[in-house]
Amino acid sequence: MTKSQKSFSKSIVLPILYGVKRRFSKAKLWVGIKTGIVKSIMILPYKGFGNENEIFLIGRVLKDRGIGISNLDDSRWLNFKKMYKRFMTWEIPRVKVKAMFQGLEQIVSTDDEGYFEVRIQSDLGFEINQPWQEVELELLDQVVKNQKEVKSKALVFIPSGNVEYGVISDIDDTIVPTGATRIWEMLKTTFLGNAHTRLPFAGVGEFYRSLSKGTDGVESNPFFYVSSSPWNLYDFLMEFLEVHGIPKGPLMLRDLGLSREQFFAGSHSEHKLFQVEKIFEIEKQLQFILIGDSGQHDPEIYLQAIKEYPGKVKMVYIRDVLERREKEVLEIAREMEELGVEMILVKDTVEAALHAKEKGWIWEEDVRDIIAEKEAVD
């Protein structure tokens, strides 16, 4: 398709298709409410982050899905049904949500897909007595008959205490092997597995916990997860992190599907770079260790972030999952070095941990635990 054809499709065809989609979604929701299929509404908040003067979080208003947590012995069919519910959502557009935090309030509206964004600022500064703070959320509009109060609490991470650095990590093929470079394998593991059956790379849990502790032994170094996976997988991924003892933190995903701006999904690279930059801008006081893999474009994304935010990145670890890209990635590493940032291509978690120990970022005894965990799996 030529550039002019693409421009025509985006300016003429996309608005038509999006208009059809919105009319269908509106009719579907109306029928769902009238027939009682939609009878309970939920606010699904995603973990946010902030600093002493600002907090940021995203959430979504949906029909209550009733998915619940998973178990190790859940069947593939049950896993599939839960995943189906995650993707077949009934989003609630154009309703108001009130956010309340430390005496401040903000009223926001959901967009066509049910998403809302909260950004509360305080010139006086917030009272930070612990890293995780609660934000109260309340739905202000009535959507269904006999609707009870619809409330939720969002968790927002505000770095406090002795924070040495922050960590931004990819998920697919960085924390967990997903076959992101092999579409069929990725779909199979996504739809038929659950948080218990999906296993991280050996040693990842121990390595990430050691980075969270740093050198003072207190898990205060914040983690942020940036992925091109859809928001539909949010609860699944958060449960995965908890089940496998990987430090919890804000998880920045993306919306898939037809929208006002895109036919299916925006650029993988643009999304991840935008989220990394957003973290940099809010967590102004921190330097970051960036962790990704060579399967997609993490090295290129991180290089661009380093160029645009000098001094924000102290180290880059890239898991080598695609051998044919090795030469290309090493060339990016040389370019990063010229900008004053070291990047190493690692075969496994132990290699990254040994390097972090040499840099004085984690304890030697933690490295022994990481090696033991890897040997137990191997």
List descriptors.
about 375 residues; alpha/beta; Immunoglobulin-like; 10 helices; about 35% helix; Mg2+_PAP
Radius of gyration: 22 Å
Domain count: 2
Q: Return residue spans where pLDDT drops below 50 for at least 5 consecutive residues.
A: none
Per DSSP, the total helix count is: 10
Average pLDDT reading: 88
**In the CATH scheme, what's the topology name of the largest domain?**
Rossmann fold
Largest sheet: 8 strands, mixed
GO molecular function: phosphatidate phosphatase activity
Protein name: Phosphatidate phosphatase APP1
Domain Phosphatidate phosphatase APP1 catalytic: 165-320
InterPro entries: APP1_cat (IPR019236), Mg2+_PAP (IPR052935)
Explain what you see:
This protein is an alpha/beta fold and 378 residues long. It folds into two domains: 41-157, Sandwich (Immunoglobulin-like); 166-377, Rossmann fold (3-Layer(aba) Sandwich). It has ten helices and 14 strands. It has helices at residues 3-35, 76-87, 183-192, 204-213, 234-243, 268-282, 298-308, 326-338, 349-358, 364-377, and strands at 41-45, 48-51, 54-63, 96-101, 104-109, 115-121, 132-139, 151-157, 166-169, 223-230, 251-254, 288-293, 313-319, 343-346. Strands 1, 2, 3, 4, 5, 6, 7 and 8 form an eight-stranded mixed sheet that branches. It has a six-stranded parallel sheet with strand order 11-10-9-12-13-14. The model has no long low-confidence stretch (mean pLDDT 88).
